[in-house]
Amino acid sequence: MKVIPGLEGVAVAETDVSLVDGERGRFVYRGHWVRDLAVSRRFEEVVHLLWYGHLPSMEEERRFGRLLSEHRELPPHVKEIIDQIPAKTDMMSVLRTAVSALPVTGSWPPAPEQAAAVLGAIPAIIAYRHHRMQGTPMPKVQRDLSHTSHYLYLLKGTAPTVAHERALEAYLILTAEHGMNASTFAGRVVTSTQSDLLSALTAAIGALKGPLHGGAPSEVEGMLEAIGSVDKVESWLRARLEAGERLMGFGHRVYKTVDPRAEALRRVSQELAGEDPWFQLALETEKIALSLLEEYKPGRRLYTNVEFFAAAVLRAVGLPKQLYTPTFALSRTAGWCAHILDQAEHNRIIRPQSLYTGPIPATS
């Protein structure tokens, strides 16, 4: 046997859920370019595509939207559990605990209706904990808002602007799924044992909680805040590179060309730049950073990744930094559930091996 650290380059499943081709910059959900879905479809439509294999008709979209909205109200016992979690506990740990307590049947195989019960509840989990920590009242659940709009409404108490809803919708669609990443793999491993949906999802949330997987947008925002204004971009970035430090939001383990998710979010940022100066700062920073990276690190193929424009979007719509990774989890739940359903349909327990490197005891 040959050890492949991190399983890099090793395929562990066949799936038609998505294609992530980092060499050629191709990103597909079930036969559709994701960049096109992000600017032309609603989040509910894309989730339907991931779970059921096709974009919904108008009637199917209405039914699916109603299914998600039926689970927006948190059960009292889940609220009580959240209330008992110490205040210093991070939001991802709260989310992991609350998801595990949702009243979702553990029947096998898992079904889309179970997945909808979790996805429908996650915005309320995040918002409920957020308001408890801020000492503010939790807004009353609304049934007539879209999933994206309702999430922003729960956090702020008012319906979002069209621009903010559109920006966050694009982000949620682009981050809903991304192949066999660490958290998706964790969910599929648990599913392969014929464990229940909630166990698989809590494993996935635990993996996403790690800073090497889900924490990059906060670091990008810190960089943009430090730059402060468009006239300071080049001097700040050049000083950083001269000091041998990284520019956050550039380069990706998978993509060796332009990240198609970043391309789509750039389009959204360009359209909204006149409405929010934060988008203009991000666009100018990206332009100058790419030029400087080619100057200082020629041939390294360091392109803009999705976290760069994710930071611009999440800041512009008014999310506090501590909600960046939970919001990522909200979107990625769609992809996790798609893979859990896919694994269950073609199940074989995932059981890799390891090479023993320790001593062999003497023969007795």
TrEMBL record:
The keyword Transferase applies. CDD domains: BsCS-I_like. The active site is at residues 252, 307. One of its GO terms (cellular component) is cytosol. Pathway: Carbohydrate metabolism; tricarboxylic acid cycle. It comes from the Bacteria. PROSITE patterns: CITRATE_SYNTHASE. One of its GO terms (molecular function) is citrate synthase activity. It catalyses: oxaloacetate + acetyl-CoA + H2O = citrate + CoA + H(+). Keywords: Transferase. One of its GO terms (biological process) is carbohydrate metabolic process. Belongs to the citrate synthase family. This is Citrate synthase. It comes from Melghirimyces thermohalophilus.
